[in-house]
Amino acid sequence: MGGLSRKFVKVNELRDSGIDPIILDAGDLFFTTPKLSDKNRESEFYRAGVILDGYEKIGCDAINVGHYELAAGLAFLKKMDNECDIPFISANLRDATTGKLLFDPYLIIERLDLKIGIVGVTDMKPDTMDAVSADDYITAGNMVVDKIKNEVDLIAVLVNIERGAQQTLPNTFTDADFIYTSGGTHLTRPTNPQKDGGPYLYSFGKQGKYMSIITALIQNAEKEIVDVSGYENKIKSVNRRLQRLQKKDPDKSLEEIYAKQANVLKLIEQYREDLTKSEQAIASAVNTLKFEMLPLDRKIKDDDEMLAFVDKSLATCNSLNKEQPKRGKPHKHKSRHRHGKK
Fold first, then answer.
1. Is there a single domain that holds both residue 293 and residue 261?
2. Among 88, 215, 237, 259, which lies 20 to 30 A Cα-Cα from 28?
3. Residues 98, 75 share a domain
4. Residue 166 belongs to domain spanning
């Protein structure tokens, strides 16, 4: 919850610059824990409502229903859905009594003459939740992707799944363009390798400590999307390595410096091939994608109104939580140990 104010600021900066972003959540948004008890239930229920209020202020476009959203039971989930303007989606969760899908399986969003299909699935329904049944998430997700792929220009699949299975998803939802995951703590970085041509897979860590921004420039929806951020990072990395090798003698060519070291010359050749390949990939790309990861730290100025909303909400959460840890006798510390940076 603490990152809401800074996320609000960054999203507004994008809008002020003329960008109308699509904001999605892949699931596990509601609570701090999937295990609710009489001691923390009131606090966690309040927190879920506050988070949804904050996401409405930010302008979230869709929320995939995941493990944490199901943790409080179907009645609470439907109550949150009814009270919230943000669409909840799920292609594989059904009412166990009626057999009907609980939510719309997908959403189509239009931005700048592009139609983007958003599909949601989960593989983490609690076993104890008898009121809800879950279809196989792979079958259900691919059925929806196949249904809408000729109606839209791009498809994003939101997948709530344990981390161990996340890396297989590009080979699971092959007709998707983007796959966003929740259910693990892994954080995708711009340097992480991606499948050529997609689908591009992203995981966003935990607790909202980072804001990940994926910027796609689409000039021809029939052409593949090229992740230029990966190639740009490759160019920077190769240039740094070549510069380190050059430091041995700035006045000579690398071939002269390492004339007697065949292994180094072979490495230099490979670096130059990688450099050429990356530069050509960027130059020939029709549709491009850039991935940035922004830490929501104190370098981002808080929005005063949103910060006040968050602070008040956190104070209320703490007052409602009956599961506060017991405090022992205070230890004596020097003041410099009590005011460290967070």
1. no
2. 215
3. yes
4. 4-219+288-317
What pLDDT, in 10s, does the model give residues 142-172?
999 999 999 999 999 999 999 889 999 999 9
In the numeric block, which tokens belong to residue 210? 């980072």
171 burial via Cβ count (<10 Å: 0-12, 13-18, 19+): exposed
User: Considering the domain boundaries, does residue 335 fall inside one?
Assistant: no
**Is the Cβ–Cβ distance between 71 and 126 less than 8 Å?**
yes
Question: Burial code of 48-64, b = ≥16 C-beta within 10 A, e = fewer?
Answer: bbbbbebbebbebbbbb
Angle between helices 4-16 and 304-320 (to 10 degrees): 160
| Four-CA torsion 196, 200, 205, 210, nearest 10 degrees | 100
Q: In the structure encoding, which two tokens stand for residue 181, read together?
A: 């995951």
Residues 146 and 235 in one domain: no
Q: Does an H or E element contain 230, and which?
A: helix 228-246
pTM across the whole model: 0.84
Q: For residues 17 and 151, state if they share a domain.
A: yes
The tens digit of pLDDT for each residue in 84-98 reads: 999 999 999 999 999
Instruction: Tell me if 170 sits within 8 A of 129, measured CB to CB.
Output: no
